[in-house]
Amino acid sequence: MDPLYLTTAIPFVNAAPHLGHALELVQADAIARHARARGRDVRFLTGTDEHAPKVAQAALAAGERVPAFVARNAELFATLAATLQVSYDDFIRTSSDPRHRPAVEQIWRACAAAGDLYRAPYAGWYCTGCEQFVDDRCDEHDTAPEWVQEENWYFRLSRHADRIRTLIGSGTLRIVPEERRNEVLAFLAGDVRDVSVSRSRVRAHDWGIPVPGHAEQIIYVWFDALINYVSAAPPQWWADPVERRHVIGKGIVRFHAVIWPAILLSAGLSLPTELFVHDYVTASGRKIGKSLGNAVDPNVLVARYGADALRWWLLREVPRVGEADFTEERLVETANRDLANGIGNLVQRVLGLGRGAAAVGEHELLARAHALPARVDAACDEFDLRAATGAITDVLDAANRYIEHTRPWALAGDERTAVLGTLHTTTRAIVAELAPFVPSLADAAAVRLEQAASGTPLYTRLTT
User: Which of 41, 186, 266, 343 has the smallest number of CB atoms closer than 10 Å to its CB?
Assistant: First the structure.
């Protein structure tokens, strides 16, 4: 299997992280852990995006120096990753990592040498939340944009549109799910315009990487930030035959599916091979956002219910396409149903029945257990983590039903041995497949099964 270079988007550090950031971290971590479990060499990158004007504005509003404000908030994101048991290999900070600025300057110069950068005046509406120009109002942030008029550097995005459309249409650059792929192709079929890739030093609050040779301009934060995927990658990881996969939210698809490939084509670098695009978690029916005032603190949720409960809700209840509305009641209900009454109950019952030898013979439950890894593989390859966890709970529910049907406590001799063998083999298969999704619970279950000790409940029911 080819190595996998897996990245999350890097969030702005203008405020503390919220549940939406937890969703992407956990999704990417499940993909990384699953790939490692299948024997793949994985490099998993996350980090923080720090050069946005809105970050500088937030620091000024807080009465802090920008570097100190940025460092404090960046630490909150690193702490969240640790709290959620995210197994990243590298964490990049774009304002302080010594690898980043040289890479940005090098790629800027390469695009300039290719004839893809030019200066021109611009006037238009700008959404600070998205850090991009918009038509008249930003649906993503539900705010009125500001009018901006200045001379900036432009990137010839239009020059690369046809090539990118061909790459996406052929599957060379794979976008999952298909709904997002079709949206990008529809955009590329229209009038693709060049994009502004710098801001005046004044409007950028003197925060960011200066345009090489033109210090009065600051490189646009998205041009800067996208390059983190390359600046943090040792050369062998941004080259074939490595699979280069970005996990991102649907709101930034065009940056990753159109602008980023165009920059790489201009600079003569390899492209990502896949974009895995997720929808949003909502609260009260609205996208969770720092600027929208409905942020949910994932650290508080983990402190109250544990990392496994939050991870499981994010992976089990958030659909591949469409949004999931979060409440603590739904988190508790899902954890109790699947973790306490499901895997916790199964492990306790199986261990309470006694040791089981390796299963022999044929049984429908064993067939389900043997087929489970392939079902999880197929779902993960389509970025359908709800289907992957659903495949596990299907077998889990079948195992609990099997106990009720066979009543092994009433059996003896070879018949009892066969039933216990089937249960132990199936339970171990379930626990192995659970490990990427709820690592602490899966580790605890594996230890119990190895030691053949039931003890206290494996997973205690939660209450709100």
Answer: 186
